[in-house]
Structure formats: structure tokens, C-alpha cells
Design a protein that fits this description.
Elements (H helix, E strand, L loop, with lengths): L11 E5 L15 H6 L1 H7 L3 E4 L27 H13 L3 E6 L9 H6 L13 E2 L20 E4 L4 E4 L14 H16 L4 E4 L41 H13 L5 E4 L5 H4 L12 E2 L3 H4 L4 H14 L7 E3 L8 H5 L1 H13 L3 E5 L19 H5 L42 H6 L4 H14 L1 H5 L1 E4 L6 E7 L4 E7 L5 E3 L1 H4 L2 E7 L13 E3 L4 E6 L5
Parallel strand pairs: 1-2, 1-11, 2-3, 3-7, 7-8, 8-9, 10-11
Antiparallel strand pairs: 4-6, 5-6, 12-13, 13-14, 14-18, 15-17, 16-18
Helix pairs in contact: 5-6, 11-14
The structure holds alpha-D-glucopyranose.
Alpha-D-glucopyranose binds next to loops.
């Protein structure tokens, strides 16, 4: 039995990118009222918690990940009253609300930074990372911005450089400074006090940098054509041992309140990722596991990823899986339309908390963005090599009307061409659509304790087949996924007693009893339960 305070363990999280979810006031940009209007949809989908990308006042240089006031709401998204109404309405719908906490950097327009840059002896100078240049006048070291160029920006007025891991408009806070820590803890308390259920912490592995600011080593494996920041490793600029103390402090703030959750954004190799659970689980309850975002889409690679992850988890740590987010290409484009259904079954039948990205449940595709429509600063700074993130941030496709029911105006990003057919209204009316599949998977997961909490047990299978069991105390189910396009027949010896199809990704075999071998079509996944006869 899962304790109430651990609700997040068996939850399905749904990421809303507020700019693109639902516009209620006809300005082409989504807003809080729009999210409230769409709560019935989210409830019908069956998800448990919404994570909202930033809604705070921001100059929008990085679309809200450059915050100028941590405890306000940007007028573009609405008002604080509307936010409070959202929390209340969500609670009535049984939905939790997770906010995006961006503590690594602020906007350069944040009053803290305005003060900090005012003079070398300003009390807030040390809230950010200021360094003298090299004797030749160049930047303090070789660290690179993830969005292109040096990570150091010279401030002519005071003659020093400040550090920015991302845009120059996103100066990094100095987390070695106690006042910074206290200020962000107070921000957390402000929102937790309003009834928010937790935070997804932006770039949490970036918070602490090397105390000596040593040069980063060159990346011997850099591949030409990849983003320029990959030319150096981030040995000294990220993932420093002291970061875990900072995260444990954040966790203590979370634990001052009941039933809250700390989620960390961490892009690191597995053995480093798992350290973010913290010493004796004092860190993030959910260090996001992004391995499926870049996994080669074949059965053996994914099987290895799952097995490695399961075996590296610290004792007592709870797993989690993510299929998409606002920084990575859409899953339906990565793995193809047919396999997107198999991916859905994988996400919702693996052991652990599942996070899905808005629109993936209707199979939204990566949208090609014409050069003159690019909004993403990453693409603007590093054009033409495919780093742009606009294509996965296009408006939610609600119906076939103008602007896909997202807005009455021209949306801030173009709509996908296929929106007149691939939209919530159409797919909801089709009992075999990908949306119906997502609903069925989420409902089944809720119904079957083995799916929610059962152990993961891989089962040997040939070729394109990924086969595993989820084993509860006195029952188990089997999941068989065909990651290939060819039909496959699985010998009865590999599926054992599990002979009743509970769900197929095609939604047309429920209740079927398997006699002998299990035949799977190309791109088909099934969940099998024990049939009555099999005992
Ligand atoms: C995170 C966000 C991304 C943002 C970056 C800088 O990776 O997910 O969208 O650009 O941090 O804040």
C-alpha cells in the first residue's frame, strides 16, 4: 500500500507548456485561464499532476526560463487570482499542480541582478558569479554557454565578467552564497504555502560550479555538426559534489509541507544521475530519467536501458520515465507514428512515475519551422544544425477549427499541418485512436496494482520483441512490445500462463484468449493477464 505522502510514486505527470496549451484571451499565447478551461480534458485523460513550465514575470528571452520576479505571474499568462483559481479548480478535479523552479539563473532584468551589476561593492554583487577577465582581457576561463559562445559576458561599467550557463540574459546565481539559498527557499515556501504540490527544478545539476573555476577539458568525442558547447566537457561547470548539499536543503523545505515532491531536471549519464536521489534519499524524489528521449529505438537497446537503470537505483529509490518535453523532438517524430503507440505502452507499463508531454497523447509531430518563424533563442544563436525547440512547442491541437481551437488569433508558433485531423475532438471520437489508447493505458495502470507498483522482471525474447513481467505480491502481468514493423509469433513458453489480452496498442483484442503462440502484428504491443482457465 502506497502512503498518501508518496502519491507521486504511482502518478502520471503531464507537462503543460503554458504558452501553447490554451489561449483564453485571443492574443495567440496560452494562459492560465485556458488551462482552467481544459481541466475537464485532463481529468478525462486520467493524469494525476500537471507540471507547468514557467508562468512568472519574464522578459521571455528564453520563454519564461529567464525570471524577473519569482513570486509573481506574468500578465501574459494572467493574474495571481487566476493562478489561485487554477490551484483550487485543479484540486477539485483531483489534480496536483507542480511549478517550474528556475534557481540556477534569473533574468538580467531581475532586481537582484540589476543591483548586482550596479557596482563592485553592491551588497548583491556576490549573489551572482563575477570574475575578472584574463590578463589579456579575455573571459576568465573556457566555459561555454549551452546556447552558443562564451559563458562569460563582460560588463563594461564595472569591468568584470558574469557567468551565464545559458543566454547572457540569464545570469547564474551564486549558490555558494547563503543569502541566495535563503531567498530561493523563501520563494519555495511562498508557492508551497499557496497549495502547490511541488517543483520541477530547472537544470538542478548546474547549481554549483567549481570553486576555482578551472578550465573545462576538451571533449575528445566531439562530433562536427553538433552544438558548439559540446566541444568542451562540463567537468568543472556542472555536477559538482557540493550540489547535493544544496539539493538536500531544498528537500528539507519541501518536507516542511505535507505530501510535496521535488523533481530535478538532470541530463547526466546513469551512474551520475542516480546520485541525485541524494545521500540516504535526501535529494530529489524524482531525478528525471531522460534515457528514453535519446534511446535508439530497438528492443535490445531499450531492454538494456531499463535493466541498467533498475540495477543502478539506490536502495529505496523510486524509478521514473519521461517520453517527451519542451526541449527535445516529439516522440511521434523520433520513433514514428506507429511506434508512438508502442512507446505509450512502454512508458505506462514500466515501473515508476511516468511523465508525458502535452500533445504526445494525440501523437503530435515535430513541426518544421521556417527560418523567419523561429522563436527559440537556441536556434537563433546556433542556426541550421537542428537544435531548434520550437517544433515541439507548437499549439495544442484541440479541434479542426481555425487555430485548432487553441486560440481565436494567430498562434505564437505555427500549427502542425495535420491539425484538422489529428486533434483532440477527432481522436476522442475514435475509440481506436492514440488518445483512446493513452486513456486506456492510464486507466489500466490505475486499476492494476502490479502495473503501479509491481517489480520489473525482464524476460528473454528474440529480435524486435521487448518482453517483461510486472510482478505484484500475488499476481503478475506480461507486457510484449513489438518494436519492429514485421509480425512476430512468440512461443507459448515465453509468455507462460499469461493468456488473456488486457490491452493491445491497436485497441481491438481486449479479452482475446491466446491459444498456443502469441501472434503480434508489426508495431503492436499487448498487455497480458492470466486467464481464468490458466489458473
Ligand atoms: C532547462 C529548460 C530549458 C531552458 C534551460 C535554461 O533545460 O528545460 O527549456 O532553456 O533550462 O533555463
Amino acid at each position: 500500500m502506497i502512503h498518501k505522502k508518496d502519491w507521486w510514486r504511482h502518478a502520471v505527470f503531464y507537462q503543460v507548456y503554458p504558452r501553447s496549451f490554451q489561449d483564453s484571451n485571443g492574443d495567440g499565447v496560452g494562459d492560465i485561464k485556458g488551462i482552467i478551461e481544459r481541466l475537464p480534458y485532463l481529468r478525462s485523460l486520467g493524469v494525476d499532476a500537471l507540471w507547468l513550465s514557467p508562468i512568472f514575470p519574464s522578459p521571455m528571452a528564453d520563454f519564461g526560463y529567464d525570471i524577473s520576479d519569482y513570486t509573481g505571474i506574468d500578465p501574459l499568462f494572467g493574474t495571481m487570482d487566476e493562478f489561485d483559481a487554477l490551484v483550487l479548480a485543479a484540486r477539485h478535479s483531483g489534480l496536483k499542480i507542480i511549478l517550474d523552479l528556475v534557481p540556477n539563473h534569473t533574468s538580467d532584468q531581475h532586481p537582484w541582478f540589476v543591483e548586482s551589476r550596479a557596482s563592485r561593492d553592491n551588497p548583491k554583487r556576490d549573489w551572482y558569479i563575477w570574475r575578472d577577465g584574463k590578463p589579456d582581457g579575455g573571459p576568465p576561463n573556457n566555459w561555454l554557454s549551452e546556447f552558443g559562445g562564451s559563458a562569460w559576458q563582460k560588463d563594461e561599467a564595472t569591468g568584470q565578467y558574469y557567468y551565464h550557463a545559458f543566454l547572457a540574459q540569464q545570469p547564474d546565481l551564486n549558490w555558494r552564497n547563503d543569502a541566495v539559498r535563503t531567498a530561493i527557499h523563501d520563494v519555495m515556501r511562498f508557492w508551497l504555502g499557496k497549495g502547490v504540490d511541488g517543483f520541477r527544478v530547472d537544470v538542478i545539476w548546474h547549481l554549483i560550479k567549481d570553486a576555482e573555476f578551472r578550465d573545462n577539458p576538451a571533449n575528445p568525442h566531439y562530433v562536427e555538426g553538433r552544438p558548439p558547447h559540446e566541444k568542451i566537457l562540463t567537468q568543472y561547470s556542472t555536477d559538482q559534489p557540493e550540489v547535493h548539499g544544496v539539493i538536500a536543503e531544498m528537500r528539507r523545505v519541501i518536507d516542511e509541507f505535507d505530501e510535496r515532491v521535488l523533481i530535478g531536471e538532470v541530463y547526466l549519464p546513469l551512474h551520475r544521475l542516480v546520485t541525485y536521489y541524494g545521500n540516504e534519499l535526501s535529494g530529489a524524489q524524482i531525478p528525471f530519467n531522460f534515457m528514453l528521449l535519446s534511446a535508439p529505438w530497438n528492443a535490445r537497446s531499450i531492454e538494456k536501458i531499463v535493466t541498467d537503470y533498475e540495477s543502478e537505483l539506490p536502495v529505496g529509490a523510486w524509478p521514473n520515465w519521461v517520453l517527451g518535453n519542451h526541449d527535445r523532438p516529439r516522440v511521434a517524430s523520433r520513433v514514428g507514428k506507429e511506434q508512438a503507440r508502442v512507446a505509450a505502452m512502454l512508458l505506462l507499463t514500466l515501473r515508476g512515475t511516468a511523465t508525458l508531454y502535452y500533445g504526445d497523447e494525440i501523437g503530435m509531430q515535430q513541426v518544421a519551422i521556417a527560418p523567419d518563424q523561429v522563436r527559440d533563442p537556441f536556434e537563433k544563436n546556433v542556426p541550421g544544425i537542428g537544435v531548434g525547440r520550437d517544433g515541439c512547442r507548437t499549439p495544442m491541437q484541440w479541434d479542426a477549427t481555425t487555430s485548432a481551437g487553441f486560440s481565436t488569433a494567430k498562434p505564437w508558433l505555427p500549427l502542425a499541418d495535420d491539425y484538422t485531423h489529428e486533434n483532440v475532438a477527432n481522436l476522442d471520437a475514435d475509440s481506436r485512436s492514440i488518445l483512446s489508447l493513452y486513456k486506456a493505458l492510464i486507466a489500466l495502470r490505475r486499476e492494476l496494482p502490479e502495473l503501479m507498483a509491481g517489480a520489473y522482471q525482464p524476460v528473454a525474447a528474440p529480435g524486435d520483441i521487448l518482453l517483461y513481467r510486472r510482478e505484484g505480491a500475488d499476481a503478475a502481468i506480461v507486457i510484449a512490445l513489438n518494436l519492429g514493423t514485421e509480425p512476430v509469433s512468440l512461443a507459448s513458453s515465453s509468455i507462460g500462463f499469461w493468456r488473456e489480452i488486457l490491452l493491445s496498442t491497436f485497441l481491438d483484442r481486449e479479452g482475446e484468449e491466446i491459444q498456443g503462440a502469441l501472434d503480434l502484428r508489426g508495431n503492436e504491443g499487448v498487455i497480458l493477464g492470466r486467464s481464468a482457465q490458466a489458473g
